[in-house]
Amino acid sequence: MKIIKLQLTAGLIAAAAFTASALNGQDPGEEDLIILDEAQAEDIPIEESILATTRPISSVYGTDRSILDTPRNVNIVSREQLDAISIKDVRDFSKLTSSSYTKTNFGAPTTPNLRGQEADLLINGVRRGHSINGNGVPINFNSVESVNIVKGPAGAVFGTSNYVGGYADLITKRAYFDNGGSVEYTYGTFDQHTLDFDANIALSDTMAFRTSVQLKEWDGFWDRWYDKSQSVYATFVYRPNEKYRFDIMGEYYKGNYTENWGINRPTQDLIDDGLYIPNVGSDADYNANYTANPPVGFGNFGSIELDLNNPVSVRREGKLSAPGDDSNAEVFWLQGIHEYVVSDTLKFTNNTYFHYKDRETFSSYHYSEYMPDNWSAENRFQVIQDFDDKIELTYGFRLKYQEIESVNHFFNEPVNYYDMTRDPNLFRVPDSSFEGFIYDRDPRGVLDYWYVGGFSADGLEAFDTESFIYSPFFQADIEVNDKFSILLGATIDYLEHKEGIPSAVKALDKNGTSGIYDGTNFIPGNKDDDTITDLDYSKDDSSANFYNYNISFVYKPTEDSSVYFTYNEGEHYDNNTGGAINQDALEGLETELIELGSNISLFDGKAYIGAALFHQEYTTRNQDGTIDTVETDGFEIEFNYQPNRNFFATIGYSFLDSERTAGFFATSYTAADAGDTGGFFITPTFPAIAPGQTFENPGVPPHLLNALVQYQFDNGIGLQANLVYTSSMEVGYDGAIIDGGGDAAGNTVVRSPKLDAQFEIDAKIFYEWENWRFEASVFNLTDEENWDLPNTGYANGSIVARPERSYEFSVRYSW
């Protein structure tokens, strides 16, 4: 059946491309008499256009090219579309593009999911980095003008990454040679306040400056949730002539926000009916048990007794956290882009990016993360050279250096110990059994120290790394004739890596004896003695090489349509917390992409349709070192229509048939199955999974549909509506066999709930009058009780309720 679906879809793509000429009213060989850019310039300003055909893109192959000449599935999200959906974080990309359902990542997703895997985040063509599993500092869109969303692994110009599902390239605001700007205030349900300011100044005919400021004070739908941040973005352009342009841009961000574990003990009854399994006994009994049998460490998580026969309704706003838990981050990035056109056949570009991040997270249940003064710098120099308008060569090199230090603790994370109907001040792991700590960090919560997870030569969750990557690349675009072209490229990333343990880490042994751990031996000493500062432990220096190559064939039956075939193969590495390269996983991770697609401009340039049929396969390393293989067959289609300034519509659909081997997950059973486990239900337990099992990829909806429509009357009143639909999907690895027998009752089959199909409708009404714009938005118009899924490995420990119906009002003045 799968093969039949793929064959039928391939036929549809090819047929669509070859019949595009009929839709445009011309024969395949007839010349196109309409220049799209000129038509759009007359009707729709570029900043209002939602059509991918109106602007060149460089996010796929590193050179400006038309979407019709780009042999990959790309979705260009304009500022108009971002504003239309009132974008708040990367999860909202599912409102605008296919194959994008992003898991919660503990409430702070910093990258989207594409084609079922965490994706990369780029800024103007360079990787932002500094994240793992999509978790990190929430992305603000203060600096963003548009977003290019590319499905599948990066090509030769951009090189290797541990994220091969795809990437979102944030194209930032640029200064322009005119004066203008805007100021906007937005108020939303849950007491959310946002102030945006944007101003551009033309300093002369050759220089311009632009700045944007965003201030956010957001409380939220969930208990003890907030996001408070300030960001300042500035950019300057110098263009002395038509041959040379220099842009420099940078942003400072400071944020104070919270994780969002959501509701623990997820079951099918919780998802379907909001019913939660509490502990047996009164509040006094629960408090007494917490005192007598606290969750004190991995494998020794106290004891609880669940009241399986008397589930209770639970507040959807529930969030597993204690008062005072939060995250803090400071981020600064700076980028300079030089473009020098030597002649009609030769162009030099240089893109330099610097990124600094200092952040920490503390959650009492217990997850802590401390990453001080991490930074990276990358430079990409490339030459673009034409030969007789038939061959275009792109070649150059990338240099990247980064220093990443991280100290974290997730070895004491007994998330299902806590009863969400009780006092949140008891959602805390006490001091007992913690071992390593950071000697110069203040304690949080009820703890005496800022602790470090693990306590062995291989398991201590503290590392200080230096990495240097040198990457030559080469790409050739060969025009065989007017209708057929070939694109091929290759790169190799040469990696040198050093790794040790930060000097600020001290340790306690399991008996409470103070001292330090050098990776092999415990050295007794006074834990408060400032002379004991070094663990004096480092791994051997490492080096590795990673290749990546791609080849594409493009056939253009008409000027307004193309059919392409792309093959991409490469190797990639695994990352640790904070985006540090994982020294233990420098080999064995590979990716392969096979994609057949078509791009078509319709109705005299007023519509665009892009479709792709693909097979993507990659390997990924789990937290415990096991390797999973993910295989996805899929179909994606995007349609954009904008006949004039009054109306636009977009629609996207994806079908993903994704399978994954199960090498790692934290929780074997749901709370509903606790009666079958001999009463033991304190997680995580990290069971060993019998090898050779393959499952439907959890957290990946087989069907995703999104649609956005806007109509504005000539009197300034406008209406918008947005729909997102996801089909039912697996929450975890339901039916997985535990290697070696499982729990005390001898059960060996994992049970996991299923998330039914969901939809959400948003709507907006707005009015433009002279320099003013007024908006009123409603989110989740029909007040659906929807859910977001966690990272797959923690599927039976968490689920997050999506907000109820909410409202937002804004007013903007422009000049």
If you had to describe this structure to a student in words, what would you say it looks like?
- The strands form seven sheets. The protein has a 22-stranded antiparallel barrel.
- With about 800 residues, the chain is mainly beta.
- Strand 21 and strand 22 (about 485-500) form a beta hairpin.
- About 5% of the residues lie in helices and about 45% in strands.
Helix/strand structural class: mainly beta
Poorly predicted spans = 1-42, 526-537
**What Rg do the Cα atoms give?**
27 Å
Terminal CA distance reads 58 Å
Largest sheet, in brief, is: 22 strands, antiparallel, barrel
Question: What would the principal axes of the Cα set say about the shape?
Answer: globular
Overall average pLDDT = 85
Summary?
The chain is mainly beta and 815 residues long. The protein is built from six helices and 41 strands. The longest helix has 17 residues.
Spell out the blueprint of helices and strands.
Elements: H1 2-18, H2 20-23, H3 36-43, E1 74-77, H4 79-84, E2 113-114, E3 117-118, E4 120-123, E5 126-127, E6 144-151, E7 166-172, E8 180-188, E9 192-202, E10 207-219, E11 226-238, E12 244-257, H5 268-273, E13 275-276, H6 283-292, E14 312-313, E15 326-343, E16 346-363, E17 367-387, E18 391-409, E19 436-438, E20 450-452, E21 462-479, E22 484-500, E23 505-508, E24 514-517, E25 522-524, E26 542-558, E27 561-571, E28 590-602, E29 607-621, E30 627-644, E31 647-661, E32 694-696, E33 703-712, E34 717-726, E35 729-730, E36 754-755, E37 758-769, E38 772-779, E39 787-788, E40 800-801, E41 806-814
Parallel strand pairs: 4-7
Antiparallel strand pairs: 1-6, 2-3, 4-5, 6-7, 8-9, 8-41, 9-10, 10-11, 11-12, 12-15, 13-14, 15-16, 16-17, 17-18, 18-21, 19-20, 19-23, 21-22, 22-26, 23-24, 24-25, 26-27, 27-28, 28-29, 29-30, 30-31, 31-32, 31-33, 33-34, 34-37, 35-36, 37-38, 38-41, 39-40
